[in-house]
Amino acid sequence: MSPEECIFCQIVAGTSQAKIIYQDEEITAFWDQYPAAPVHILIVPNKHIPSINEVAEEDAYLLTKLIFKAREIAEDQGVREKGYRLLFNIGKEGGQSVYHLHLHLFAGKHILVVKD
Ligand code: 5GP
Ligand code: ZN
Fold first, then answer.
1. Nearest one of 1, 93, 96, 101 to 42, comparing CA atoms
2. Does the Cβ of 97 fall within 6 Å of ligand 1?
3. What is the DSSP secondary-structure string of 10-60?
4. What is the distance between the alpha carbons of residues 100 and 51, in angstroms, rounded to a whole number?
5. How high is the pLDDT of residue 52?
6. What is the distance between the alpha carbons of residues 85 and 79, in angstroms, rounded to a whole number?
7. Helix, strand or coil for residue 103?
8. pLDDT tens string 22-61
9. Is residue 106 within 8 Å of 40, Cβ to Cβ?
10. 78 lines ligand 1 (CB under 6 A)
């Protein structure tokens, strides 16, 4: 798929709508269209990288940046201490459906069966 056809490239470029909560020159964070938890936010690199499998060594800092931004968003959402889940789906059998690298941030009481 070319970046022009990629829904997340379109969201980054502002040509498709999304609830964007953060954007800079390298990364964008927006709410998942079909939230699977009370908090479900996607953090993506602005440049088109299909998945973790295609991350080049010189882009390694981008992964760190995605994780640090997810942690900051968790703080803003009031879940940093309560807990949250970060997830990359990779490839067909890994459950990936959009082939533009994205880090899922899930939070809220339904994400895990927690034993007290
Ligand atoms: P994956 O299954 O590839 O790890 O996750 C893709 C995620 O993108 C899914 O949770 C899906 O709900 C979300 N998604 C797919 N299309 C759109 C869209 O157009 N806008 C937004 N905000 N989220 C989308
Ligand atoms: Zn893309």
1. 101
2. yes
3. HHHHTSS---EEEE-SSEEEEE-SS-SSSEEEEEEESS---SGGG--GGGH
4. 6
5. 98
6. 10
7. strand
8. 999 999 999 999 999 999 999 999 999 999 999 999 999 9
9. yes
10. no
Cα of 42 from ligand 1 centre, angstroms: 8
Catalytic, 48? Answer no
Q: Convert the pLDDT of each residue in 2-33 to its tens digit.
A: 667 999 999 999 999 999 999 999 999 999 99
Query: Cβ contacts of residue 88 below 8 Å, gap of 6+?
Result: 51, 52, 101, 102, 103, 104
Q: How far is CA 97 from CA 7, 14, 90, in A?
A: 11, 21, 9
How much is the pTM? 0.94
